[in-house]
Structures
1.
Amino acid sequence: MGRSIFNAYREAYGGLSREVWFLSIALLINRSGSMVLAFLTLYLTEKLSFTMIEAGAIFSVYGLGSIAGAYAGGKLIKPVGAIRIQIIGMALACPLFCIVPMFESWIGVAVSIFWLSFFSECIRPANNVAVIQFTEPELHTRAFGLQRMAVNLGLSIGPAVGGWLALYDYHWLFYVDGATSLVGALLLVYLFGSKRVVRSSDDERQKETLAGTASPISDLRFVIFLALMFCVCIVFFQFHATYPKYLKDHYSMTKPMIGMLYAVNTIIIVVIEMILLNKVKRFRLLNTIAWGAVLSCLGFAVLPMSHAVWFAVVSMSVITLGEMLLFPTATSYVAQRSSGRDVGMYMSWYAMMYSFTAVAAPLLGTAMYQWNEHSIWWLSGGLGIGVFFSFIWMAREQASFELKQSSAVAASVPD
């Protein structure tokens, strides 16, 4: 039994390059300070006395900065390099984290949050492209799984520690976030140096990765994919908007308890995500994405069914299972779809989709919350089911298209 478990983990983690591990370690350190987003709603409403609508608008400003940062990060990958973009973004985010607490007016907070999100989020497309450059295509899903695991581990450490810091002084959340961002940048410099291309053996792959020039938005299937992911993320992005507020109001959870619930999410991911992704690799990406989407949404949809803390843990477990199936495979689909094209801009539009959601989700979520605190969760179930069938339809359409292509190739081969 023990040997079979060991072999399962060895197979799940085997084959990934050391560069992918380096990138994941840097992300882990950087995201270990991710305390601000988890408690931003509470900071704005309790410390600064903002209304829920004003707090939601701050999240939308964060989303606008993310959109600009994701686009700039994608455009600069070719001339600057994927590793350098991450170093610059992390390094410049550090002082901005420390500046935010200096403001108490809505406009002051909004401007500082915009630039903080710009530099924090410009690293997202760059990190994805770097993972592709140092990974064989058949390993993309597991590589993105490792990347997601590092991010989530950091995101659990941050809120767990942040819950206690928030009891003492909210400002420490920003200072610790800034410190970990700087450490992440310094680690990338130490591991990769300042060279644009890290390994000479990867030159051809990196050239191919950045080859195409056609705009991703001219790719109809990719646009449909982005639209469906947008719908899922409207729900998932309540994770840092209305979700902690609902846990406090509906489940009567304290800040440390909320932080520990986020840790449940990461513990599950760290223990089983890589094994799970290794097991589902034989399935079509779009089918796996469909199941991940519906489980994520249904995990949120059941929240109003109880007031018990154990039920919140069960709900989080369902959300986490969906997240593990959804996000690494979705990023892998983008890598697959962008093969032979400009992967940097595909990843940029993919990152911008998240950023557009970061604008819309808090506004929609907080407005619905103020009207009825349960309404956003009821909407989640309907969206999840609709997106599930849409992704299944896309998977069947793709299978039909590939069958026609293979038939045409076979017919063109002379006997």
Note: Confidence is low (pLDDT under 50) at residues 197-209.
2.
Amino acid sequence: ADALILEVGLGGRLDATNVIETSQVGVITPVSMDHMEFLGDSVPKIAAEKAGIARSGVPLVCHQTDPEAAKTIEAFARRVGAHPIMSGPHFSAEQVGTDILYKDGKGTLTLPMPALPGAFQSANAALAVAALRHQTHWSVPDSAFSAGLRWATWPARLQQLSSGTLVDMLPDGSALWLDGGHNQAAGMQVATFLKSVKEEHTGPVHVVLGMLSNKALSDYLRPFKGLLDGLWALPIPGHEHHDPAAIAAFGQELGVPGRMSADVGSALVQIAEETETGAAPQIFVLGSLYLAGDVLARNGTPPE
């Protein structure tokens, strides 16, 4: 390949991808509590595992919202001779209207917002741009940054399903959203987006959730308190998952009814039947990439 983006499977230090001895640039996205049974029981411990991808003489571009994670990663990078490029001191991005104002030591770029929903995508865009601008192997014109952001697609990341078998089950004007995030940080970002949707629409908001048993259910769901009209719990066939009864019971903490369904289709049928005429629901199917894959297959719209 002329250029290879190699994504770490789990952590970094002990991941199989870490056999690669050379790279043009390393990238670390925000660290959150996830895979604690393998990576550690605190954000700094998990950050230390992820920092293991750092290479001597290679830029390590990093955006962190947790100061302890940033401190851990930067210290490790310097210890092994990498060049830490941290958001804040080395690059930044600010949303200005419908644009992103990106700044680093090389100058300033005015870029379009990504063709992806969610305010957090501006930070993701800045991280990608910073990675390309701090490597020296390939020359990337500014026009490519703008084009890439406009063309970006990302299945199961706040993806709105506009047509398909499942969409056809819903009342006119409904919206069906899909996101495979499954940790606390993902829950906070989806909840923030859901709140903005709720402010723009008068219909009820429902979350349909299935989650693997090794994920922190309560950490993910707490940000949704006060935002929902219903919580629907699903199993994830073929995988060890949280008991739907436990998910449904968590509805009490969120202040909404929690109910169980056999699958996503059954949940959507129930929501449609209970929705008052003219009150088109906003439905978010969340909690697992395995569930997201099942939803896309059932809807007849698998990733291209």
Note: The chain has a mean pLDDT of 93.
